[in-house]
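Need the bound structure for adenine, inputs here:
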Amino acid sequence: MRIDIITVLPELLESPLNYSIVKRAREKGLVEINIINLRDFTADKYKTVDDYAFGGGAGMVMMIEPVYKAIEKLKSERHYDEIIYTSPDGERFTQKMANILSLKNNIIILAGHYKGVDQRIREHLITREVSIGDYVLSGGEIPAAAITDSIVRLIPGAISDEQSALSDSFQDDLLAPPVYTRPADFNGWKVPDILLSGHAAEIDKWRHEQSLERTRKLRPDLSDDE
Ligand code: ADE
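Answer from helper R.:
Posting the output first, comments after.
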């Protein structure tokens, strides 16, 4: 799989995508992640990639030309299954969407910035607009990193214990059960007896019950449609 991220702040994306599971997936060749500096696609000597909005108003707009050139260059080299634009007014990102995207071969993510990109890019080139939640961040870089991370951990082989990705919260519309490690008793704070019992089937049952209970209590909306 290949993910190309177009951004005005490449530095912001380097670190989050260079640790832990994503780093290992890159090293194993399971995913190729390229961070593309939008400023490399402007002929302007000041490397300008934003301009005032037609009609006035506060805030700058990502210019159409550099974005168009960056996307067209990538598209001339290979077929892309999705061209995603990160924006607070996009469709809400979910585990389901991460699952679907993890099955694609090539994805572009355009990290929105300033007041957003010229609408014509959204209309003509973008295939999916994605928000990571109902709050506004300073730019689409952190959303792009979050989306990439959640996709990459689902690629077979990215996590050594495959069960581990399958038992993540949300994978079956349930929150994950609580986890504990040694010591079994810390200053009188005890691990539930069942987890020390050695009865695998009973432990599975307990974990499932915990998942159901936590989901009912904390995220009843997850099972609304069932
Ligand atoms: N850019 C700014 N805020 C965002 C959000 N919540 N999701 C996606 N992109 C964004």
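Comments: Residues 86-88, 112, 131-133, 135-137, 140, 143 surround adenine (CB under 6 Å). The first strand starts at residue 2 and ends at 7.
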